[in-house]
Hints:
Elements: E1 13-17, E2 20-29, H1 33-41, H2 43-46, E3 51-54, E4 61-66, E5 76-84, E6 88-96, E7 102-114, E8 117-125, H3 132-150, H4 168-174
Antiparallel strand pairs: 1-2, 2-8, 3-4, 4-5, 5-6, 6-7, 7-8
Amino acid sequence: xxxxxxxxxxxxxxxxxxxxxxxxxxxxFHAPIDDVWAAVTxxxxxxxxxxxxxxxxxxxxxSFRMLYEGEGHPAERFVIEECVPxxxxxxxxxxxxxxxxxxxxxxxxxxxxxxxxxxxxxxQSVPDPTMAESVGPGWDYYLDxxxxxxxxxxxxxxxxxxxxxALSDHYRSEFSER
Length: 178
């Protein structure tokens, strides 16, 4: 069981790790770590709230497609840099940009469990501070969709328009030059 978000709020924070700037988010689940791990790594579980993947993870990469970004969203190449079930997954994404070049993002998924509560920490690299204004609200939206899906409710009940651009000011401030 999880806590369903009532009103969208900006939860991401700027974090520096290994020479990179990330936007970091935390969500808690009243569920075993293995269950939350499955929600973020099994294609059918991911499909409930964000997207699905195809391929063989043992090869070191999969093809991931966002399912709730509108028609024709291109698949992205996800290179699995590190996988330590059920605690850590580090991925580098390669997605086509509108200009026809590739964009690379670094994603970190970290899970810990204590007393039947699993804390899920999600981080995405933010090489350009201005991208946080859209990436931050987007991840708040998708991670809230995860909470709703894992609670057994309909993630479609959340509206992206409640997140973006409403939460952008928080991320603009959080990632302004320091």
